[in-house]
Structure formats: C-alpha cells, structure tokens
Amino acid sequence: MHRIYAAASSVVVWLGAPEGEDGAAFNLIQGIQSFDRTLNYSRSTDLSVGINEAIEGNILPPLDSAPWKALASLFDKRYSTGYGFYKRS
C-alpha cells in the first residue's frame, strides 16, 4: 500500500455514508473505472475519447443525465485537508 500511495499525486478518501445523490456519482465512477479497464487503446489516448465512445454506445449514460450531474455535484463539495489525505469537512 505504501508504494501505491507514495506514487500518487493525491489521494481522496470518502469517510461516511453517501448523501443525497452521492451514491449515483460513486456508481458512475465505478462504471467509468470498469470501462477504463476494458478499453483497448494506448494509454497515450485521452480517456475522454473512450468515454465519448462509451456514451455513444450506451455503455455509459449521456452527459446530461442525473449520474453525471451527481458526479459534478460531488466534485463541488467542500473538503478539508488532513496530513496526507483529504476528508469531508
């Protein structure tokens, strides 16, 4: 674990239960992560290209859907920093 965290530029940790639409945002993140593992593209390719293809192929929801809005809302939340990690304030 030390090797993983030492190589990270930042680490975000969620403490506590999801609130409101946070669950939809976390589900979308998991969907993107699962899709990213199955992509057959060079890592030099921008991930957004693959995501756009996944949206067009109905693998991921449209950008104007509730899960993407929930994800945007998740990133708008206020967070406080701690020593070496982030936690919700």
Give an overview of the whole structure.
This protein has one domain. Strand 1 and strand 2 form a beta hairpin. Strands 1-2 form a two-stranded antiparallel sheet. The model has no long low-confidence stretch (mean pLDDT 77). The protein is 49% helix and 9% strand. It is mainly α and 89 residues long. The protein is globular.
Task: Using brief descriptors, characterize the structure shown.
mainly alpha; 9% strand; 89 residues; 4 helices; two-stranded antiparallel ribbon; 49% helix; globular; 2 strands
Rounded to the nearest angstrom, the distance between the terminal CA atoms is 25 Å
How many helix segments? Answer: 4
What's the gyration radius in Å? 15 Å
Q: What is the beta-strand fraction?
A: 5-15%
**Physical arrangement of strands within the biggest beta sheet:** 1-2
Q: How many domain regions?
A: 1
What's the pLDDT, averaged over the residues? 77
Shape: globular
Number of DSSP strands? 2
Helix content: 40-55%
